[in-house]
Design goal:
By secondary structure, the protein is mainly α. It has a single domain, classed as A middle domain of Talin 1 (Up-down Bundle), CATH 1.20.1420.30. It is built from twelve helices and two strands, in the order ααααβαααααααβα. The protein has helices at residues 2-27, 34-62, 66-89, 97-125, 132-155, 166-190, 216-250, 256-266, 268-279, 283-308, 322-339, 346-364, and strands at 128-129, 343-344. The chain has a two-stranded antiparallel ribbon. Helix 4 (97-125) packs antiparallel against helix 12 and helix 5 packs antiparallel against helix 11. The N and C termini lie far apart (54 Å). It is found in: Membrane. It comes from Kitasatospora arboriphila. This is Ionic transporter y4hA. Pfam families: Na_Ca_ex. The chain crosses the membrane at residues 12-29, 35-54, 66-90, 102-123, 135-155, 167-185, 223-241, 253-275, 287-312, 318-340, 347-365.
């Protein structure tokens, strides 16, 4: 019976991404009626769950922090492709899409995913224990990249509005890509031990102790299916984006809400994977996923839109407004105070969730 269940799970996690990809091919570039949008949404949700399964197989095979890095980079690369595609389709209309989506990703990961992971672990085990060296390094890099890419454009004077000129945008793109590359090197090579799970007394734990390792063939197969699932997720998300934009406009909500919805959709696989890790008392894995996703979002999106701006006919608005800058500063301050003690209680998790709630309220009612 167990073998039949496992076989059924494998067949399901293979079939759904393939069917979702077929659905993407059939609906690409077409105006979708309501019933078709509902079907697309079902396939999108199935592809998200399949992506989580395959990401966990890969993570189990390669161990931390490589496993969380694979999912974070894979999701972000396709997210960047979605953002650039939408901006090319309507450069004036989507002038702020990159800013809105990147900032939404930062707030969702650094407050939502991180806060839920800490809260879930701390409620179950009294405190959530993590490695402060790696987590602190990730938070410092996020704070720097967010300030250079999203705050400084608001205060530059060489161009009107919260925009960079060509030289400034080039610097921001190079700095973002360079710092992200250096972080990945630190995380995976030079100081990998800073991103491994720790026990109650601060001792390093082996992530590969839970269960038998998947075979090399299974890992490669999951890598391929993860790619198919993520392409399907982002492609189908683009397909339903006109419906989302119409719904947002009809509800009288700000256009920036579209960026929030896109970020929520593309971050679903990482969010589910992070919460499952937290439920298993592997909060460091959750933090690696959350902060790694935030870093990848800034470090890959800003250089990409900088290159895309060469042929975009519309403006590229990156600077945040005053309320969002306050929330970013609060996120950095609260995150720093959470990281320094190396352990967190449910209170810290709730504080991060409160910041996320404030962001969502202001997104709907600025």
């Amino acid at each position: 019976m167990i073998d039949l269940i496992r076989r059924g799970l494998v067949q399901w996690t293979v079939a759904v991404p393939v069917l979702a990809l077929v659905m993407l091919i059939l609906t690409w570039g077409r105006s979708l009626p309501g019933p078709v949008v509902a079907v697309v949404a079902l396939f999108l949700a199935g592809a998200v769950l399949a992506a989580v399964h395959h990401a966990e197989v890969i993570a189990h095979r390669v161990g931390e922090p490589f496993g969380s890095l694979v999912l974070a980079v894979a999701v972000t690369v396709i997210e960047v492709a979605l953002i650039v595609t939408l901006m090319v389709d309507a450069p004036v209309k989507n002038a702020t899409l990159a800013r809105d989506t990147v900032f939404a990703a930062v707030m969702i990961t650094c407050n939502g995913v991180l806060g839920l992971s800490i809260l879930l672990t701390a409620l179950k085990h009294r405190v959530a224990v993590f490695n402060a060296e790696g987590t602190g390094a990730a938070f410092a890099t996020i704070a720097t990249l967010a300030t250079l890419s999203l705050v400084l454009p608001t205060f530059t004077t060489s161009t009107p509005g919260p925009q960079f000129n060509t030289a400034q945008l080039t610097f921001a793109g190079i700095a973002s890509l360079g710092l992200y590359g250096l972080f990945v090197t630190t995380q995976t090579l030079r100081h990998r031990e800073y991103f491994l799970p720790v026990g109650a007394e601060g001792e390093l734990l082996d992530e590969d102790d839970h269960g038998d390792l998947p075979s090399r063939r299974s890992a490669w197969s999951s890598l391929g299916m993860l790619s198919v699932a993520l392409v399907s997720v982002v492609g189908l998300a683009k397909g339903v984006s006109p419906t989302v934009e119409s719904a947002v406009a009809e509800a009288g909500l700000p256009a920036s809400v579209v960026g929030v919805v896109i970020a929520l959709l593309v971050l679903l696989p990482e969010t589910i994977a992070a919460l499952r890790a937290a439920a298993g008392n592997r909060v460091q894995t959750s933090l690696n996923l959350a902060l790694g996703s935030s870093l990848a979002s800034i470090g890959l999106t800003v250089p990409s839109v900088a290159v895309a701006s060469l042929w975009l006919s519309g403006p590229l608005v990156l600077g945040l407004g005053a309320s969002h800058m306050v929330l970013l500063a609060l996120t950095v301050a609260v995150g720093t105070l959470t990281v320094i003690p190396r352990r967190a209680t449910p209170l810290q998790g709730a504080v991060h969730l409160a910041v996320l709630a404030a962001y969502l309220v202001l997104a709907v009612s600025p």
